[in-house]
Amino acid sequence: MKTPIMRARLDSIYDACLSLVYPQACAACGSASVEERACAPACAECWTRTEIYATNAAMCWKCGTPGRQATVEVERSAVRCRRCDQEPWAAARSVGVYGGALRAAVLDLKRHPRIGDKTIELMREWLRCAPLDRATLVVPVPLHKARERERGFNQAAIIAEKLARRARLPFDDASLVRVKYAETHRAGMDAEARRESVADSFAVTRPRLVAGERVLLVDDVWTTGATAAACAAPLLEAGAREVFALTLARAELHNA
User: Fold this and answer.
1) Among residues 54, 61, 174, 189, which is most buried (max CB within 10 A)?
2) Are residues 214 and 241 in contact, defined by beta-carbon separation less than 8 angstroms?
């Protein structure tokens, strides 16, 4: 039986051999090589330069918007930005800012159905923390069937399935479906336009599978929260107790 130390040593040897025989250029900086499979598609240096949110940082407890400083007397769970009060989801978190290694991971995932272990472990850290630690079921944000046929896979499902395995949670990619085909969000669209573009786009086809569950909704990028809201509404109507959202990255736009 391989011990954790033995596995670590074997992985290190394998990574060293792989970097010599099949060097992979960093997808973030384009110059350095990716020396560890877990860090792919970015090099270790680009990961250190990427803004990753600390799980104990001051932020809006509901939407996860960073920079909401709390006084010593205020519990972190009481910190609110108040702009997300009416959203149907219970809480939303992201690994970090959309840039550097996280941006490279998102873009690589749109071309290839793969996600690195480092990225998944960063997401896993949020599932060890309140309030996302209450999640009982992992559900990816679905693509419309036509768009999924074009791409060949759903990138959110790739992330969600691997995360569910790592967290030992049930994975359900069948109950929540996208019923309305919409054009991809265009750059410059404000929060209201994004909300209108996904309105009534999702439905739950198997309500018995989500009833009573605390659903973790997984996607690649958080922009305004419009997609999460459009998914959360039918999940809650189908009987889900709560809906949380977790994404790889957060675009630097105002949440709404």
Assistant:
1) 61
2) yes
